[in-house]
Structure formats: structure tokens, C-alpha cells
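Pipeline run #58 for the internal structure catalog. This entry was flagged by the ingest filter as a single-chain record with no existing model, so it goes straight to prediction. Upstream metadata was stripped on purpose; only the residue string is passed forward. Reviewer on rotation: M.T. Logging verbosity set to normal.
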Amino acid sequence: MLTMSKAKENDKELAKVEEMAKTTKGLIEKILGDVSKSSAGKQIALGGASGWCTGYLAMKVGKVAAMAVGGGIILLQVANHQGYININWDKIYRKVDKVVDKVEEKATGEKAPWMNKACQFAQENSYLAAGFVGGLLIGVASS
């Protein structure tokens, strides 16, 4: 239960936070302002810094995601091979083929013959293909 003194303390803390938010917002607006009206050098520097931050964070998040997906693919393949799970590869291949065909047709307007060969190879060598994809993602994550 809040006492009067604790309630007043909370109100004071809230007021401090609100004041700090206003001050920070004002500082950011002073520094950045309307960037489109700034000099080319300032725009390039700001764009470069924000791009670097975005790229750095994307790589950090991307590495974790790639490691998780790659490891998951390899674990699924091992579990399938050991008989713990049964993956209906025909159903997966049909779904993947439909999606790949739609993407190819939208992107290029025609089907790419090399893509059909790669899909056929992956279907015939599912363990090799899944291991490759998992290893590729782990390699990206560990770079």
C-alpha cells in the first residue's frame, strides 16, 4: 500500500522523467532539425552513422537467427534420420515448389531452368541439401 510520502516521491520521479524526455527531445531536434535542409556533408554523415547502426544491429540479430534456424534444420534432420520424427518430404516439396514457381514467375516472368535442377537435386539428396543449408546458416552466423 502506498503511503502519502511514497506517492509524492513517485510523482516527483515521474515529473523528473517527463522533464528529461522534453529536454532530450529538444536536444535531438536541435542537432538534427530538418535533415533535408542540412548540408550534404551532414546528411551523408547522418546517413552513414544510421546505416552503420542499422547494419550492425541487423548482423547481430541476423547471426542469432541464422544460428537458431541452421541448428534447428540440422537437429530436425538428425531426428528424422534416427526415427524420432517422420517428415513428409513429398508434401514439403510440393509446397516449396509452388512458392518457388510463383516467386520466379513474378520476379522474372519466366521459369529459370537452373532453379528446377537445383530443386531436383535437393529432392534427391535431402540430407545433403538440408545439411548444406544448416551449415551455410551457421557459417553466416559465425562470421
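catalog note: The mean pLDDT is 75.
catalog note: The radius of gyration is 27 Å.
status: ready for reviewer M.T.
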